[in-house]
Amino acid sequence: MLTSLPNLLTLSRIGAVPILAVLIYWDTSLTRWLACGLFVAAAVTDYFDGKLARERAEVSALGRFLDPIADKLLVAAVLLMLVAIDAIRDLSLLPALIILCREILVSGLREYLAEIRVPMPVSKMAKWKTAIQMVALGFLIVGEAGPAAIPVQEIGVAGLWIAGLLTLVTGYDYLQRGLRHMLRPDLPSGTSSREGAGGS
Predict the structure, then answer these.
(1) Of 28, 45, 46, nearest to 142 (Cα)?
(2) Residue 199 lies in a domain
(3) How many separate domains does the chain show?
(4) Residue 51's pLDDT is what?
(5) What is the chain's mean pLDDT, rounded?
(6) Under 8 Å between Cβ of 117 and 100
(7) Residue 94's domain spans which residues?
């Protein structure tokens, strides 16, 4: 049900994306801190929507569809806006690009594996990657607006590089798992998305 609490939390994460984009683009000390607070709140909903859905037995197909979309929209929007205001620049663009490409790769793999009814659970390393990535993005959102005694921008960049490296490892792991199923000789080569998953 769309109005269940877990789904509302997921939708709130999607709704936060345009507000975050405006706050980051405005690029003042106040808007950076406001954007960081909103980003942290949105990231927290990612934990609670799944937890509540399981506890309240409200896991739904809609929720499973919306949750990864909300995550990817949030991360992609923040990365792009940070690039726009030069908070991510030069070589730091590389881990940002790796993260974006990996999100597209994993989305494609999940869609394909769903067609042949093969689950692709999130690995522990991927969870660590996501946690480090979110912390790094929070630091980068604050950036130069942070306390002078703390190298906020540098911490964010370092975290982004660590997340980028973990992204490579987890992306390769997911790709290997996906290829094992793609190359299985017993799978019909002509299976379409509608034939394999009952429509999209």
Answers:
(1) 28
(2) no
(3) 1
(4) 75
(5) 85
(6) no
(7) 5-185
Instruction: Specify the 3-state DSSP secondary structure of 8.
Output: helix
The CATH number assigned to the domain holding 9 equals 1.20.120.1760
Question: Is residue 192 over pLDDT 70?
Answer: no
In 3D space, the residue among 138, 162, 166, 164 whose CA is nearest the CA of residue 152 turns out to be 138
For residues 87 and 115, give the distance between their C-alpha atoms in angstroms, rounded to a whole number.
39
Could you read off the pLDDT of 80-95 as tens digits, one per residue? 999 999 999 999 999 9
pLDDT tens-digit readout, 97-118: 999 999 888 888 877 776 767 7
**Tens of pLDDT, residues 120-158:** 777 889 889 999 999 999 999 999 999 999 999 999 999
Tokens of 122: 């999130």
Q: Is 192 a domain residue?
A: no
Describe the crossing of helices 152-182 and 124-142 by its angle, rounded to 10 degrees: 150
Number of neighbouring beta carbons within 10 Å of residue 140: 27
- Joined together, the tokens standing for residue 18 give 């345009």
From the CB of residue 47, how many other CB atoms can be counted at a distance below 10 Å? Answer: 10
> What is the CB-side half-sphere exposure of residue 200 using CA atoms within 13 A?
9
> Smallest Cα–Cα separation from 165: which of 137, 119, 199, 133?
133
